[in-house]
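Hi all, long-time lurker, first post. I run a small reading group and we've been trying to get comfortable going from sequence to structure in the token notation. Rather than ask abstract questions, I figured I'd post a concrete chain and ask someone more experienced to write out its structure so we can walk through it together at our next meeting. Sequence below, copied exactly:
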Amino acid sequence: MVDGLRLEAAVGVKGCLPMTVGLASPKPFRRGRSGAYHLRTATAPPSGFSLLELLVVLGIVGVLATLALPSYQGYMRAATVKEGAMSLLAFALLQERLRLTHGEYKLASVLLTYQPLSKRLRHHYRLSAAVSRRSSEFVLSLIPTAAAAGYPTLTLNSRGQRAPAQYWP
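-- Answer (accepted) --
Happy to help. Here is the structure in token form:
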């Protein structure tokens, strides 16, 4: 006996097998079909998932993702349009500030040097600014790019008129 373990030799039909270490028990070996002796081991219940269980879970996740994706895209579109409306309001304030300091409204290229569009807005919209000849009025527009085919065109003028009305706060 070594440290609570009993070393036992297993002898098979065709000769002597190497020494094995087993727990001390009344009958640590059993005889197999071939006639050889094998070490008795406690069989644990199988662990893990079967292939069928994994396929069922993947199918459920796929159905849920298919149902959730259009809703998520709708939320992202609404957030982008709302961000565009807020950005146009900021550009209108910038136009008024530039008119106070320089005496005239500026075009879109000048406005974008002061305040660039966010990355998401640049992907979906381009800024357009029309200024009257006397530089007394302006019209700001966010026009959808080719990548944003279903997005609305947002417009704001110097009188505070906004279109389309449902996208503005």
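A couple of things your group might point at:
The beta strands are 5-12, 15-23, 29-31, 37-39, 125-131, 138-144, 154-157, 162-163.
The first helix runs from residue 51 to 102.
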